[in-house]
Design brief:
78 residues; alpha+beta; Arc Repressor Mutant, subunit A; four-stranded antiparallel sheet; 3 helices; 4 strands; 18% strand
């Protein structure tokens, strides 16, 4: 099935925001999403550390801001 990978990336990042903890200027989120999607998020500069043995990924400052904005746009009530 064909699908819009950019939309998947944005929704994944928005859902990461739901479980993300603040870390420095970025954040940290669980690495429980599709590996291909995580690779694309890394290529876009929104996350890093996907190849580590850690159960989490680091979210860059840019990724944190994007995640928050996407979460508020798609899941906010105001």
């Amino acid at each position: 099935m064909e699908y819009d990978k950019d939309k998947i990336d944005e929704m994944t990042l928005a859902l990461m925001y739901l479980v993300m903890s603040k870390k420095g200027e970025g954040g940290q989120a669980w690495k429980v999403f599709d590996l291909q999607t995580l690779n694309r998020l890394c290529q876009k500069g929104w996350i890093s550390g996907i190849k580590s043995k850690s159960a989490t990924v680091d979210v860059t400052a840019e990724g944190f801001e994007k995640a928050e904005a996407l979460f508020r746009t798609h899941f906010g009530t105001t």
